[in-house]
UniProtKB/TrEMBL annotation:
One of its GO terms (molecular function) is S-adenosylmethionine-dependent methyltransferase activity. Its EC number is 2.1.1.-. GO terms for biological process: methylation. The keyword Electron transport does not apply. Residues 52-151 form the Methyltransferase type domain. This is Type 11 methyltransferase. It comes from the Bacteria. It is an enzyme of class 2 (transferase). It comes from Buttiauxella noackiae ATCC 51607. The keyword Lipid metabolism does not apply. Keywords: Methyltransferase, Transferase.
Length: 222
């Protein structure tokens, strides 16, 4: 059982609203502010466009937001429990969505050039090393030529002493139990990493938080 499957089983059993647990309300509000800004800047296409969330969890974040506004929503997550939970959630809310269990580094079940918007549901910072290149290559393959990709990710050094002592600044890894757990690159290196994989960055939004910063990077395929 992967760690995400185990965590989603616990979250669902304990009546949590989403992956963020007690932080869901804050995370949901912050996401809404960012998505509204992208709408105002005309970065997002009009409702009715196809939308894929990577690391969709139980569908409570960007998938639900976009479905409520009339987008054609799909989501993928490595946890089967999260996927079943997302289906149940959308059914209860009367929303339409397609949710599939899968690995964001290998999405061969999805056809190339299929989506107007691909949104990283804060899973990119969970990827380590080569996984990141593979994920960006899949995003590049799946997004339509005139589409938009949005990377939503932790960035920069941790700010609290407890996490800072577990930060490998040479590799930009936040460590847990002696293993890389999250990747927290500086914003400039993040943008370079994305650009190298065939994207042009059109807008970057940075949220400053007490624990670590969070970047939303919007890009188009070259």
């Amino acid at each position: 059982m992967n760690i995400y499957e185990e965590q989603y089983q616990l979250l669902k059993q304990n009546g949590a609203q989403a992956w963020a647990g007690e932080g869901y309300k804050r995370a949901h509000q912050q996401l809404g502010v960012i998505l509204q800004e992208l709408e105002q800047r005309n970065i997002l296409p009009s409702p009715g466009a196809s939308f894929l969330e990577l690391g969709c969890g139980n569908g409570a974040m960007s998938s639900q937001y976009m479905a409520e506004r009339g987008y054609e929503v799909s989501g993928v997550d490595i946890s089967q429990t999260a996927i079943e939970w997302a289906k149940e959630r959308f059914l209860t809310l009367g929303l339409k969505g397609i949710f599939i269990q899968g690995d964001v580094c290998n999405l061969q079940q999805f056809k190339a050039d299929s989506y107007d918007v691909i949104f990283d549901g804060s899973c990119f910072h969970c990827l380590i090393g080569k996984q990141r290149e593979l994920c960006l290559a899949e995003i590049r393959r799946l997004v339509k030529p005139e589409g938009i990709a949005v990377i939503s990710t932790m960035t920069g050094k941790p700010k609290d002493p407890e996490n800072l002592k577990d930060f490998d600044s040479d590799n930009y890894h936040l460590m847990r139990n002696g293993q890389p757990w999250r990747t927290l690159k500086p914003i400039t290196l993040l943008e370079e990493e994305i650009s190298v994989q065939g994207f042009s960055i059109i807008y970057t939004h940075l949220n400053h938080n007490p624990w670590w910063d969070h970047a939303t990077i919007c890009c188009k395929p070259n």
